[in-house]
From TrEMBL:
InterPro entries listed in its UniProt record: DECR2-like, NAD(P)-bd_dom_sf, SDR_fam
Catalytic function, reaction form: a (2E,4Z)-dienoyl-CoA + NADPH + H(+) = a 4,5-saturated-(3E)-enoyl-CoA + NADP(+); a (2E,4E)-dienoyl-CoA + NADPH + H(+) = a 4,5-saturated-(3E)-enoyl-CoA + NADP(+)
Highest taxon in the source lineage: Eukaryota
EC number in record: 1.3.1.124
Organism expressing this protein natively: Aspergillus granulosus
Keyword annotations from UniProtKB, A to Z: NADP, Oxidoreductase
Protein name, UniProt field: 2,4-dienoyl-CoA reductase [(3E)-enoyl-CoA-producing]
Length: 315
């Protein structure tokens, strides 16, 4: 079902913003709620897209839906891609470039998450999240860098060095949990801290070639699988802890993405754009009464209740 424009981006953006030069976005985790909204907004504004994911059926279904937001839009859905496998990503990036004419923007959005205290968190579980988030982000950058460099070079040829124009840009999707430390999220805190550091390194090394590398760190976003799992007990209580007084929306993240990929964001590089309504400043925690701090860790039971089942969330 095609969403209405105001549900996934603000009305301030100019139609055709990314269509004049046939821009192309490549997105890992593109079938997820947040990443698909980011891609949806870019496609509506003129870009073509390639989303990749592990599920063939789901990825192709979402790609077809995304293509419906604009007449003539081209959206590839490539399934059976594991971000932990560099060869799989390189093949997908090559297919994207061959069928759509290149890659101008990249969103590294594949992620894993679940609630677990350290004493119940196995080494394999910890490693799994780091592999998806950190290695997956690195592989995404590694597989797409040649195309991003080509896009940035084209911008320089057309526009000179000031401004670079739009193209040759990568966004890593991170989080805010590691800023203050979050109970039951040691694996995610470690992974997202590494993703932030990776984005900074890409900025430093690839910036001279015309690339920009930035991070978007969402707070709790309403109606997503991750928020339903991590904030399942009392979403209103969570919203009350956020200075802006509400949970975020996918539109908030899509708007931030459009800004960073547009010409307006051409001089923003190596930055972390937190989109959470100021929530991390209030030290809000995601788990509710069943894992209230510090009572949960002092209890002999240490059993998590009121949280949806499942150990992994692919955002």
């Amino acid at each position: 079902m095609v969403s209405r424009r105001h549900e996934y981006m603000s009305n301030v953006w100019r139609d055709g913003l990314f269509g004049e030069e046939g821009r192309v976005v490549f997105c890992t985790g593109g079938a997820g709620t947040i990443c698909s909204a980011q891609v949806r907004a870019l496609v509506y504004l003129g870009a073509n897209a390639c989303i990749v994911g592990r599920s063939v059926e789901k990825t192709q279904k979402i790609a077809k839906d995304l293509a419906g937001v604009r007449n003539g839009a081209k959206v590839l859905g490539i399934g059976a891609v594991d971000v932990r496998d560099i060869q799989s990503l390189e093949k997908a990036a090559q297919q994207c470039a061959e069928e759509l004419g290149g890659i101008d923007y990249v969103i590294a959005g594949a992620a894993g998450n679940f609630l677990a205290p350290i004493h119940n968190l196995s080494t394999n579980a910890f490693k799994s999240v780091l592999d998806i988030d950190v290695l997956g982000s690195y592989n995404t950058a590694k597989a797409t860098l040649p195309y991003l460099i080509a896009s940035a070079s084209k911008n320089r040829e057309q526009n000179g060095t000031e401004p670079f124009g739009a193209g040759g840009r990568i966004i890593f999707v991170s989080a805010t949990m590691h800023y203050i430390g979050t109970p039951l999220q040691s694996h995610v805190c470690a992974a997202k801290a590494a993703v932030d550091a990776l984005a900074h390194s890409v900025c430093i090394e690839q910036g001279p070639l015309g690339l920009t590398s930035n991070v978007i760190s969402p707070g709790p976003i309403a109606d997503t699988e991750g928020t339903s799992r991590l904030f399942s007990e009392n979403k209103q209580a969570t919203a009350n802890q956020i200075p802006s007084g509400r949970l975020g929306t996918v539109r908030d993240i899509a708007d931030a993405t459009i800004y960073l990929f547009s010409e307006a964001g051409s001089y923003v590089n190596g930055e972390i754009l937190v989109v959470d309504g100021g929530g991390w400043h209030t030290n809000f925690q995601p788990a509710g009464e069943s894992v209230a701090y510090p009572d949960f860790f002092l209890s002999s039971e240490k059993r998590i209740t009121g949280v949806k089942d499942g150990r992994r969330s692919r955002l």
